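hey m, so remember when u said the tokens were messed up on ur end? i reran from scratch. heres the input so u can diff it against urs
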Amino acid sequence: MWNQTKITALFGIQYPILLGPMGGGFSTPQLLAAVSNAGGLGSLGAYTLTPEQILEADKTIKEQTNKPYNINLWVSDVDERLTNYPTESLEKVKALFKPYFDELSIPLPQLDTNIPSKFMKQVEVLFEIRPAVFSFIFGIPSTEILDEARRLGIKTIGAATTLDEALALEEAKVDAIVAAGFEAGGHRPSFLKPAHDSLTGTFSLIQQLKAKIKTPVIAAGGIADGKGIAAALTLGADAVQLGTAFLITDESNATPVHKAALLSDESRYTVLSKSLTGRMGRMIRNRISEEVKYETEVLPFPLQTRLMGPLRAAAIAQGKTDMINFWSGQSAVSLKHTKATELMQALITETQLILKH
């Protein structure tokens, strides 16, 4: 049976279909529950949440599903180069973006370069909650954290953009590895080399990982329908992870204007940019991503996010869509289901028809 894999057995789920843990407020307890209740593994991207907000979200999740689910954190949630970041560099980047603020008639924000990491405190709460699965990106947690997850019976998933990263994750004895292809929307979770040196496509990455590691592999990036799922499983993936396809559903917290962009012709034009957050991510092109080239220095993560936050809010309020960042993978052209349960059913039915066993 196509839906009986190492991953379904490992996580106790019915289908090897995982919801991409979209952080930044895009994933919701409702979306997570819809995917888990339909037999997949729902996920909550929690890297921007405080420990209290994670507890609150988990309470809502537990009211809506009794099935396994995943909570995702960022191991590295503050760039190292933010330490002692020079004032002149900060002012230079602010000056670069000032024309956009002027156009929207809003002031540049006051920025504090002292941003502490939330990760350790988030992990403490995660161990209190005990989700079935703890996934993480941008690195590998300490041996102590991984040992504690094992002791509590929490399965772990790391994300790799290269074979070297997958080998490092296998060495750390994680339970599963996401093969994060460069077609995926959102951030590139590279951690051994810079993101721009880690641009392997999903199908190549699956094959590289399956040839060299024994840990179960979850394919992610550019998969939006049953054909993509069947192809990934045929290449040896033990499960798939979809993000952009679920972004357009009613249960996702993407703005109406973001969902409209994903369903428009503009969704065929995605670019890799660090203009919004300071880290490379795939988005639908906009004026800022076109004008601020990838090589241009922007602020370290998450300071760049704090710079751009007020601009994004004002652009949304003023309907200036050419200045708004819309995360998107490369396969948004075929999206159509706006209910998470219907999307899950369509994915299962289509995959079943193709693989027929």
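this time it looks ok to me. DSSP finds 14 helices and twelve strands in the chain. if urs says something different then somethings off w ur setup not the seq
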